[in-house]
Amino acid sequence: MESNQKTRKENFEQLASDHFDSENIELIDFETRSSGNTLATDHLSVRFDCKINDFIKKVGPNYILEAGKLVGGQITLEEEDLQRQKDIYMSYARTFDYEVRMKIPTGFTVQGLDEFNHNIDNATGSVKSNATLSGKELIIQFTKTYKNSFENASNWDLMKAFLIPAADFTEKQLLLKKIG
User: Fold this and answer.
1) How far is the first Cα of the chain from the last one, in angstroms, to the nearest whole number?
2) From residue 110, how far is each of 24, 54, 65, 94, 118 by CA, in Å?
3) Which tens digits make up the pLDDT trace of 22-47?
4) Full-prediction pTM beyond 0.90?
5) Strand pairing class (125-134; 137-146)
6) What residues does each domain of the chain span?
7) SS3 content of the chain, % helix, strand, coil (to 5)
8) Under a CB-based contact definition with an 8 Å cutoff, are residues 132 and 114 in contact?
9) How far apart are CA 78 and CA 163, in angstroms?
10) Most buried residue, 4, 53, 121, 159, by most Cβ within 10 Å?
11) Is it true that domain 55-178 has CATH number 3.40.50.720?
12) CB neighbours of residue 6 within 10 Å
């Protein structure tokens, strides 16, 4: 049993490292909420708490938080990817749903929350996101859905309509401004 727990911890550490594309992560806590391998639980749901220093930079008395990176990497389309002639085959339709919670230190306000609001939905997929404050807790919600496992090449513009904003989301920043 102890060996199994150690393996699970190592797997979650690797998941966090891959998700945030960083080796500088301290895993604090983790759990599998739903394995997604039964009829009663048709989706995988995990939670992990970790400490990451890579996404925050001090600027005078304030801090810049690269908050968009907290939802993990997204597909980035290069110039040569913007045009497509071949149909799109994916393993399955799927949804990625992230909720990031972070405590804002006392003595700071948060600026730039409106930049995190997206709601793009079409026949091929969607991206929906927002950032809010609840007391001193920052809550970022991000959901990206691929609605089908196959798309005709003619639907590529519809897919780009949600893929490009999802990738842009990862570049969004918040300012933690010192009060006073």
Assistant:
1) 52
2) 25, 19, 10, 32, 19
3) 777 777 777 777 666 777 767 767 77
4) no
5) antiparallel
6) 1-52, 55-178
7) 25, 40, 30
8) no
9) 12
10) 159
11) no
12) 10
